[in-house]
Design brief:
With 502 residues, the protein is α+β, with helices and mostly antiparallel strands. It folds into 3 domains: 3-300, no CATH class; 309-431, no CATH class; 439-501, Arc Repressor Mutant, subunit A. 41% of the residues lie in helices and 20% in strands. It has a 9-stranded mixed sheet. α2 packs antiparallel against α3 and α12 (439-452) crosses α15. It is elongated, with a radius of gyration of 30 Å.
Length: 502
């Protein structure tokens, strides 16, 4: 039988606030010694009372706006009871009945992530995924199991979390991958978190079920917990679809359970039976006041919202004439997108006009996604520490466009700029790299190359036209790579035709 997978995604986004959700302990705990970022409040000592982190609330509102959600004017906190040793209070402070953001959506570009070809433009479509809710809560501690012993670190306990829940609108592993990738981009664009899944700063949890193709009723739901990479999300869903399909086709039943993902073995593992909402025994948090979001407060937050990745991607294709692929690559990182636009602004000012602006944008995109990304990858650095400014990149491109240097020389200059931060003009002037465009000098270099290689000249005149590139290479060698390539080729053609006619 053919089955359809139905997936709703729960995602926990860890905020990068300076302090925790309900106390003043530092939330910058990564790499710290266990249990050093704690206080009586986040350890749930008797008499210690929580205080709301305003910054964390504003971050939740921002992500709600980015997800096109309605923002609740009034909400309150609740206690969610469950008994795990990494939860000091025995309950979590969260929002259940009235989330701070609800009824939203996100548009994502879905592409085939399985082929490994990297060419996603042929198999790409845009999909809208509805957001049911986004609410605030506090994170748990971390358990480490060694042999028969378990150790708990409460540094993470109380760190602000935003939990985002979709409607069951996802139907493939690639759609889940695209959704989480787009959500991570939003988190980073807003600056509210790192989105680093490997460090646990963002954790995806698919709730999935299978049903016969064409059926309306959902199947039995299985949740896969705490996935820490986009690849793990994709692979675990693919595995579960195969596992459940085989189980159902063999007459078995799917049970409502929580699964873990063993990345090394590529299999899911049953962790526990899945709880229902009533198992958590929600009730209002008596130690915190209700949360009211005024129109003035909301409008102030809305005014700070940046242009997000998908909107920027669409604008880059329309305003700059970039391909969907180039626009996607440049907008994945907000800092890269801003770097690109600063470089384009300089180039556009130097050559006004719509056509020139689009050509300049394509040149800047090629240098950034090609040479710059290559050097950044080799040095394992991000754009924030790159020594080449966008204005310096624009200067280099203009030197090529104005034929002061050729493209091969420019790549060498670029490497020196990356290493030392000097301007392109300073390097070109200091090393005498300016392109030779003097007709007389190039004509002499052409004649010398022909005279120095009589056998190759005879072969070319005899019909071996591929030897033309040999002579181009000889002239470029004689000019130490500084000859104007187009002039060299034109002058060489003229000289060869004269020799043929002689």
């Amino acid at each position: 039988m053919e089955y359809e997978v139905v997936i709703g995604m729960e995602t926990h986004v860890e905020q990068n606030t300076s302090s925790k959700m309900f106390c003043q302990c530092s939330a910058d705990f990564f790499g710290a010694e266990p249990n050093t970022h704690v206080c009586p409040t986040c350890l749930a000592m008797p008499g210690a009372l929580p205080v709301i982190n305003q910054h964390a609330v504003e971050n939740a509102i921002m992500i709600g706006l980015a997800l096109n959600c309605k923002i609740a004017a009034h909400t309150f906190w609740e206690r969610k009871s469950y008994w795990y040793p990494d939860l000091p209070k025995g309950y979590q402070i969260t929002q259940y009945q009235y989330p701070i953001a609800y009824d939203g959506y996100i548009d994502v570009d879905v592409r085939d992530t399985h082929s490994g070809s990297g060419n996603w433009t042929e198999q790409c479509y845009r999909k809208r995924i509805r957001i049911r809710r986004a609410h605030l809560e506090e994170d748990t501690g971390k358990l480490t199991h060694i042999g028969d012993s378990s150790f708990v670190d409460f540094n993470r306990a109380g760190v602000p979390l935003i939990e985002i829940v979709t409607e069951p609108d996802i139907h493939t592993a690639d759609e889940a991958y695209a959704y989480l990738s787009a959500l991570r981009d939003i988190v980073r664009y807003l600056g509210i978190g790192s989105g680093d899944m490997e460090k646990g700063a963002m954790r995806g949890e698919p709730n999935m079920s299978l049903r016969p193709a064409g059926a309306e009723q959902f199947g039995v739901k299985v949740e896969i917990k705490n996935l820490n990479s986009l690849r793990a999300v994709r692979d675990s869903i693919d595995y579960e679809v195969k596992r459940q399909t085989e189980l159902l086709n063999n007459g078995g039943k799917v049970h409502q359970v929580t699964m873990g993902w063993d990345d090394a073995r590529g299999v899911t593992i049953v962790q526990r039976e899945k709880e229902e909402a009533h198992d958590y025994r929600y009730f209002p948090e008596p130690d915190l006041p209700p949360l009211d979001v005024s129109a003035v407060w909301l409008n102030g937050i809305r005014a700070r919202m940046p242009e997000l990745a998908l909107a920027k991607q669409d604008r880059f294709t329309q305003a700059y004439g970039l391909s969907n692929y180039d626009a996607m690559v440049l907008t994945k990182d907000r800092a890269i997108a801003e770097y690109f636009e600063r470089a384009v602004a300089v180039l556009a000012a130097a050559s006004p006009g719509e056509g020139n602006a689009k050509a300049a944008a394509k040149s800047a995109a090629n240098w950034i996604t090609g040479e710059l990304f290559r050097l950044m990858s080799g040095a394992a650095v991000d754009i924030g520490v790159v020594k080449i400014t966008p204005e310096q990149l624009a200067e280099l491109i203009l030197l090529v466009d104005n034929k002061t240097i050729n493209i091969n020389t420019a790549k060498g200059v670029f490497e020196e700029m990356f290493a030392g931060g000097q301007s392109a003009k300073a390097i070109v002037d200091a090393k005498g790299l300016a392109q030779i465009s003097d007709t007389g000098a190039l004509e002499q270099a052409v004649q010398d190359a022909l005279d120095a290689n009589p056998s190759q000249l005879k072969g070319y005149l005899g019909g071996q036209e591929k030897l033309f590139q040999f002579f181009v290479g000889q002239v470029m060698k004689a000019t130490k790579g500084k000859g104007n390539p187009q002039m060299v080729q034109n002058l060489l053609k003229e000289a060869l035709e004269k020799r043929r006619a002689a």
